[in-house]
Every structure is written in structure tokens, then in C-alpha cells.
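pls design
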């Protein structure tokens, strides 16, 4: 088995070599202070009591320091060959880290503002966005993806709010640094028991797993006419790269209908959403009769905790780290005007594809390496992009923490990745009984009207297709 344990490299510093997924994200890192892809931005909207903003900020800062004590991985940095953690040996060192990693913004700043203007920051950063006229405030987490994944974001928010509403967990007499490095997260490669390098069998299995992608003509984001957009002139693109997040929420009644239909047809919400995405893109793409059939070719995030040991000695839910990967998805669309093969048929087929056997786990490093090559060399405008189903956030994050004066209510939560060039990321999650469909893109490549038009069609294909039962 490969060994990616934390190794002491100086008097107070420890290093963990990059695993296969971290190497993927590090490959796309840009310069500090400049826009870079795959930066995680996650927002949490909180409703609190009448605590003055300055006092609220003080407790947030105290909680942020305590969170590092309990989960030191939040203070890890990206080195040339691995993640590096340095134990702070003085109060000044802790204060210096806090000053660099906790930012208060002017009232009126939104999470979308932080997302659109995100530049590479080597430190995981917590942004405090106060509301001067209300009791609701936003917290926005910014992190390099090699340090955390989507589910890890929910775990970090849960841990933060638990500490925030539990004074004993942030008591200065308890939060004493020195031995906290022993709580740094294990590497995913070790938890999966992967060998130092893939075997020939694993490489062969990976190429076989990827082969369906080459047998389909990929659908891409259609370019609607001004008439379809309800406008008389083409959209103007931004002259500068800027990440945009668009989201459409289903009502509670629409969500309930979707969940009931998925249960009736023995399929997952993720598979229904992917089928809807394929149809929304494919129904507005003219097929080439001489080319392979049209379809959705993409890579979907997959939680790798399913491959971790379950002997009770390790709780992956308490780890804040990057424990996900990507898996290939190839979904062939039916020929035009074919009666059978609607959303139900496509979703049923996708449900099977989204559950790879455990024997395939040795193939992930090769799949991820080839995905990196694909992103680096292929034209992203000719593909659908990447997809990320985040599941039911309520399973990881509570709506209420604490009680009395300490009570905090979670009003909303969302997560995004910065996108550059023509790469897109489609996401889906459920929060507070409502499905949310979103897309992340670069406004220098796609107009807002175009992406809103497509996103509404994804929703329509999903809701109407499940309603009709075809």
C-alpha cells in the first residue's frame, strides 16, 4: 500500500504527499492573487439574535481559532509535492494566521460577490459578510480543492456551528496548540489501500471504463436564438473571466412530486437529473448522421468514503479533507422522434452506471490522470462539462444549533467551484425540502441569458418527464 502519512519535515512542520486527487487539483493551480479554477466557495446564511455585530464577529473569530485546534487541516498549505501543516508555537503565530484567514467585509457584500471575484488564496479563508439592518449574516468559506471536498464543506460548517454554540469547545484553557497536528486527516489513497502505482490490470480496467465516452458524440451547451431568449439582439460576453453561479429552486410541491416519481420508478434523483440534463442539451443539438449517436459524456463527482474501512476505528465524517473523485458517465440519447427512451428510460440506465463495483477502485488514479489530460487539451466548448450531485444537505447540516441566546438558525447554504474558460459544472442538491439545480460557468464564454435558458430546460425536462412517467 502507498504511504501518505504526515511526516515531520522541520521542528514544527509536517508534510503529507499528494494523493491522486490532490495532484489533479494542484495541476490547475494558478498564481496567488489571480483567478484560478476549482477554488471552492461555499456560503452559509445564518439567522441569529440581536447580538451586536462586533460581538458576533468576536465569537466567530474565537470559533475559527478553535476549529483549527479541533480540525488542523483547515490551516494546511499547498507545497510543491504535498500539503504542509505548521504548528503555531506562539500566541502571535495564531493571531497572524487568524488575521490572514478571517476576513470581514462591508455590509452589502454577498456570497456571489465573493465567488465572482475569487482569486487564489493559499490559506483556507472564512469571509464574514455582516448585514447592518437585519439579524441574518453570511459566512463564506474559500478553499483550494485539494484540501476539502463538497461533503467536507458541510462537515466543516457543522463543526463550526457546533463549536460556535458550545462555549466549552472554544474555551481558551482547552484550545492550546502543540499536539493538534496528530488530528490531521489521513490520505484518501491510504484509506482506499491503493498501491504506490496502478497495476496493468487497473490501467486496463480504467481504459475500459472510459471507452463508452468515445462511442458517443458529446452534446454541448446549445446557443439559443435571440427570439428564444426573448431578446432582439445577441448577448454580449464579459471581456474578463469571472465565475458565475446560476441556480433554480424547485418548489416544495415540485420537489415532493420528483421524489415520489423517483421512488415509484426505483431510480435516484441524481439519475433523473442527469437524464434531464442530457435531454435539455440534446434536444437542441442537430445530430450528425455520419457521427456516433448523440449523448451526454461527462465526469461526475463520487464520494470515495464508500471505499474506506468500516471497522469502527475511523470516522470519515469527522475528517475535513478531499475525499472525492470523478467517475465517467456516458449516456446515449435515443434517436430523434423515437417514441421510447424518454427521461425514465435514460434515468434507469444512469442509476446502474452511477454505482461502480468496489473492484474498480484501483482504476481511479488512471481515470483522474486521463481526465486532467482531457481538460488540458480538449475544447471545453464542445462538451457538457462536469457534474456534481451533492445529495441531501440536511443529512450533514442541521437547521438549528444551540438554544436561547446561543441559538443559530441556518437559513440557506450553497457551494460552488470557480470555473475558467469553457468548462462548466452542473450541480444538484436538496436543502430544506427543496431541490436546487445550478450551473457554474465563466461569463467571458457564456451569456447569462443563454445559461438561464438551458437551466430552465433542465428543470422542465426533469419535472415534466417524471410527471408524464415516460
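designed seq:
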Amino acid at each position: 500500500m502507498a504511504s501518505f502519512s504526515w511526516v515531520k519535515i522541520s521542528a514544527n512542520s509536517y508534510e503529507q504527499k499528494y494523493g491522486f486527487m490532490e495532484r489533479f487539483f494542484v495541476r490547475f493551480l494558478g498564481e496567488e492573487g489571480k483567478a484560478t479554477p476549482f477554488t471552492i466557495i461555499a456560503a452559509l446564511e445564518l439567522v441569529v439574535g440581536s447580538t451586536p455585530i462586533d460581538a458576533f464577529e468576536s465569537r466567530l473569530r474565537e470559533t475559527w481559532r478553535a476549529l483549527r485546534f479541533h480540525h488542523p487541516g483547515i490551516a494546511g498549505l499547498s507545497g510543491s509535492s504535498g500539503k504542509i501543516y505548521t504548528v503555531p508555537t506562539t500566541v502571535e503565530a495564531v493571531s497572524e494566521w487568524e488575521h490572514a484567514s478571517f476576513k470581514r467585509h462591508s455590509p452589502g457584500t454577498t456570497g456571489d460577490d465573493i465567488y465572482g471575484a475569487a482569486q487564489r488564496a493559499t490559506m483556507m479563508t472564512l469571509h464574514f459578510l455582516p448585514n447592518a439592518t437585519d439579524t441574518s449574516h453570511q459566512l463564506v468559506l474559500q478553499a483550494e480543492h485539494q484540501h476539502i471536498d463538497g461533503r467536507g464543506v458541510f462537515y466543516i460548517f457543522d463543526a463550526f456551528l457546533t463549536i460556535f454554540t458550545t462555549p466549552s469547545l472554544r474555551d481558551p484553557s482547552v484550545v492550546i496548540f502543540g499536539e493538534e497536528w496528530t488530528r490531521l486527516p489521513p490520505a484518501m489513497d491510504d484509506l482506499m489501500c491503493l498501491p504506490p502505482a496502478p497495476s496493468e490490470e487497473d490501467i486496463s480496467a480504467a481504459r475500459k471504463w472510459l471507452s463508452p465516452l468515445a462511442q458517443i458524440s458529446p452534446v454541448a451547451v446549445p446557443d439559443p436564438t435571440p427570439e428564444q431568449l426573448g431578446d432582439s439582439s445577441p448577448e454580449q460576453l464579459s471581456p474578463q473571466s469571472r465565475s458565475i453561479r446560476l441556480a433554480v429552486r424547485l418548489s416544495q410541491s415540485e420537489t415532493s412530486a420528483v421524489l415520489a416519481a423517483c421512488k415509484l420508478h426505483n431510480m435516484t434523483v441524481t439519475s433523473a437529473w442527469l437524464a434531464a440534463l442530457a435531454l435539455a442539451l440534446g434536444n437542441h443539438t442537430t445530430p450528425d448522421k455520419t457521427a456516433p449517436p448523440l449523448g451526454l459524456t461527462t465526469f461526475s463527482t463520487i464520494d470515495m468514503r464508500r471505499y474506506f474501512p468500516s471497522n469502527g476505528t475511523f470516522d470519515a465524517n469527522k475528517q475535513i479533507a478531499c475525499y472525492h473523485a470523478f467517475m465517467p458517465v456516458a449516456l446515449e440519447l435515443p434517436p430523434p422522434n423515437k417514441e421510447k427512451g424518454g427521461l425514465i428510460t435514460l434515468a434507469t440506465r444512469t442509476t446502474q452506471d452511477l454505482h461502480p463495483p468496489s473492484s474498480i477502485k484501483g482504476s481511479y488514479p488512471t481515470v483522474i490522470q486521463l481526465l486532467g489530460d482531457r481538460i488540458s487539451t480538449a475544447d471545453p466548448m464542445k462538451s457538457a462539462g462536469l457534474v456534481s450531485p451533492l445529495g441531501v444537505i440536511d443529512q450533514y447540516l442541521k437547521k438549528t444549533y444551540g438554544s436561547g441566546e446561543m441559538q443559530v438558525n441556518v437559513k440557506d447554504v450553497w457551494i460552488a467551484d470557480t470555473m475558467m474558460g469553457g468548462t462548466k459544472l452542473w450541480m444538484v442538491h436538496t436543502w430544506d425540502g427543496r431541490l436546487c439545480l445550478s450551473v457554474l460557468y465563466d461569463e467571458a464564454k457564456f451569456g447569462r441569458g443563454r445559461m438561464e435558458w438551458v437551466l430552465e430546460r433542465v428543470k422542465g425536462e426533469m419535472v415534466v418527464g417524471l410527471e408524464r412517467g415516460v
